[in-house]
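Most newcomers find our protein records easier to grasp once they have seen one. Read left to right, the backbone structure tokens trace the chain's path through space. Nothing more is needed to start thinking about how sequence determines fold. An example says more than a description, so a record of this kind follows:
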Amino acid sequence: MTCFWDSILRSLTQDELNILGSNRNNRDLIQSFKNKNKLCENISWQGEPLHKKLLEENMEAIKEYNIVGIGSGHLCSTCDPFLCLICELLKININHNYCNHMINYTIKDNKRTLNFNSNTGHFS
């Protein structure tokens, strides 16, 4: 199940994929995130800046992410490292509606906003 990655790929423009250095496939996208991994110091989550420890843990999670296992699904966390990184790298806000609970990732001077929905088993 690759619904997390499929949804992200569908939402990004070709210009954004070019910034990431990615083609339109899941493995390439994940590898691009791993290559461009960084502390997401400019992101606010639910209106609050992220603490240094969380920033470091998110960066480590992306570094250690096992691309081989993507078919088993992505366990999207409440403050997901990949969603934070998308915001940071592309200057995009993300609204993630998880089981009718809105989770907001924001960055100043954003270019646009992506909207995702998920429940305990699917991300779109």
About this structure: The beta strands are 43-45, 48-49, 92-98, 101-107, 112-118. The mean pLDDT is 94.
